[in-house]
Amino acid sequence: MNIKLKNLNYYLNNADKYLAFALIVLGIIASVVLAFVNTNLLPAPIAIVIFSIVYLVNIQYDVKNSCDAYFSRKYTILLFITIFILINLSFISFIFRPELYSRPLTYFILISIVSGLLTFLIMYLPPNRKYEYLALISIIIIGLSLRILPQVLFPDIVGMDPWVHRNFTIQIMSLGHLVDGFAYSRLPSMHILIAAVSFLTGLNYKWSSVIAVTIPQLISFVVVYLIGRDIFNSKVGLIGALLLCVSANYICLGYWIFPTGFALIFSAFLLYYLIKEDKHDSAADAIIKILLAILIVSIHMQVALAILIFLIFFWVGKRIYNQFQSNGLDFIYSAKVRYTFIILFAVLMFGWWIYMANKVELPFTFIHRALEYDPSQIRDVTAYSTYVIPYYQYLMNISPYLFFYGFSVVGSLYAVSKKSNYNYLALTLGGIALLAMPFLLLQSNMSGYLSERWIYTAQLFMSIPVAIGVFKIFKVTKKKNMFKSIAIISLISIFVFVNVINPSANIDNSHISKYSTIRYAYTDSELISINTLQKMNTNLIYTDKINALAVLTQPITPVDEYLENKNYTLLRGFVILRTVIVSEPVPGMNLNYDPIAELSLNSSFDRVYDSGSERAFLNLINPKAHP
User: Fold this and answer.
1) Which of 446, 465, 500 is the last residue of a domain?
2) Which residue ranges run through the membrane (predicted)?
């Protein structure tokens, strides 16, 4: 019996090593298979293999050693001064930008270098709270810059979804009560808050939403710092907050404002109280957790479901650590995760779903559909991933995820090592469960249920494993050398650059991603043109998907299919085209010709409007008929 216990102890103490070897083997097999089946998915297993090998190379390093590594006071202040100078230079480059509706490439480069320097400084930050606060201020300024400047560039709302949410909010404000008929009529928390901010400040929807959602998101990064500090140390928390702040999807959530991002703000606070409850769990904390649960459930269905899944695996992770913790088989921690809170959250969530749908069977129908296997969905996703862009551009677009989750592979392996702790293992297991959701959904009839949103929902919970991964990769210790310093700054700067220039985070500068950067915003000329054209015509309007956002008050038919197939005879109404569809990517269209030129030469159409940014054509044969 003692021999069996010793063998079990040995395997548990080396679980990270065996898991890393298993990931390498599985990654190699998956790479070979995907090389013949789907090269678009090939980078993922290759990244897993590379980062698993990196973990094995640095397996002996303990992240706790990073606390002993720090710069002198003089060197720390010098680096902070350099960082703030570079931040100011990035703002100057924006102010003196050569293009009115585009941030210059210099801006993105400066932000990337600043983030690399800040990461380097945090790794060797002296144990002093004032330096931590300076680092937090730097993170918030960087985050504010990446989220506010896209709003400053354009005269109105940025993004597609925000237009729908604005219409709903305006209806609430004008009528003084909630209205039916909108997708979020039963999930109105964000819209009510934005309406309240607008009433109190007198600001329009755009800037009211920035105050109501963007600013709180920046505050949530402070919460991520506190989570990392409670689990490990302040340095881990700061790195986690910084890397989450500059991740492409989280930048997008800050300026492309919709309920998913709003719900994730409260999710960060809930996670903090889950971590905190082991040290201090008062009645006030319990009430706060319940209020946060109610808020999350009433804001967004998918985020609420994600939190429920996370809570279950968070609880499982702590139970696993209790049963088989790295130092032996003895119980060293009395589990305090309230499974009653999980039950309460589930009751709140399903109860709200039943209320919204007015059908008691809705949750059971939802689960039943999820369990129905439909392998044909995999082919659909594969077809979607082969969008017509050069392969190097595709690699550039997915590189932020390869970096982020590559770092998290290293951090996740550390979670099962003997150097880990119960909160970190539970957090990592919950994050991995959410990250696995898109792949599990491929095996069901629910692959179309916003699969990509699970990926950036998981980023919140994987931010601390990512920070741990960065520390493990660079082996931060008292011993410093020039090569390591340059490597840290360079790698993190590259990581940040591919994030901030990614089409999710950047809709205005297409110099790097010219085949996939789409401008989901209007110029002044386009807005004036659209408002004018609405008054000119009350019949059916044909236009592209982005243009349709500003003309939602009238019947709209997407023009995409007609232009791609050159079926001009079926365009029996008012055709509005933005001139940029010839030179820029447009969602839903892949044109290799100039439709504006062809319609201008077509005798069936008369060009009735031309502002330079918008052209309008009227079918002369049957101008008022609907197809």
Assistant:
1) 500
2) 18-37, 43-63, 75-95, 107-126, 133-154, 210-228, 234-251, 287-316, 337-355, 398-417, 424-442, 454-474, 486-505
Taking only the tens place, the pLDDT of each residue in 323-366 is: 766 444 334 444 444 678 899 999 999 888 887 766 555 555 55
What letters, b where the CB count within 10 A reaches 16 and e where it falls short, cover 251-263?
bbbbbbbbbbbbb
The total of structural domains in the chain comes to 2
| Residue 127: partners with Cβ closer than 8 Å, 6 or more residues away | 67, 70
Q: Are 445 and 361 within one domain?
A: yes
Tokens 């504006």 found at: 596
Q: How far apart are CA 157 and CA 166, in angstroms?
A: 9
Whether residue 392 sits in one domain with residue 245: yes
Element housing 198 (H / E): helix 189-201
The count of other CB atoms within 10 Å of the CB of residue 511 is 12
pLDDT recorded at residue 334: 42
Domain containing residue 262: 58-500
Q: What angle do CA 609, 550, 214 make, to 5 degrees?
A: 140
Q: Which range, 40-44, 160-164, 267-271, has the best average confidence (pLDDT)?
A: 267-271
pTM, whole model, 2 decimals?
0.89
Q: Say if CB 98 and CB 104 are below 8 A apart.
A: yes
| Per-residue model confidence as pLDDT tens digits over 442-464 | 655 555 455 677 888 899 999 99
**Which of 500, 533, 563 finishes a domain?**
500
Burial of 3 (0-12, 13-18, 19+ CB in 10 A): exposed
Contact 413, 469 (CB under 8 A): no
**Residue 42 belongs to a domain:** no
Same-domain check for residues 468 and 550: no
Residue 19 covered by a domain: no
